[in-house]
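Standup notes
- DV: blocked on the single-chain target, sequence here:
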Amino acid sequence: MDRTAGDDRIGVQAPPFQFDGWINSEPLTLEDLRGKVVLVRWFTDTCPFCASSAPALRQLYEEYADQGFALVGVYHPKAGRDDPLDVARVQRVVEARDFKFPVAID
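- DV (later): unblocked, structure below
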């Protein structure tokens, strides 16, 4: 494992969000999140590791959202990336995992 991977990004401003849609939120910008600690968590509905982290994400959001913490979930389809976007499928995943935080669709 290369523990220096990503070092070149430290101190570099993040590029603006460019997502296809949002669930649980109006579209967010980096400016909307300025001054907060932000966790961006990419996930998909077919990943067992993503599913197993859902309870921890919910707990983080519930405990710290009112203390300057922001959580943005980003649904990133693995299989069928070139297929038409199925927003209803993403909505079912968000509901099944009981995500109340903003979820962007990549």
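- Follow-up: The longest helix spans residues 48-64.
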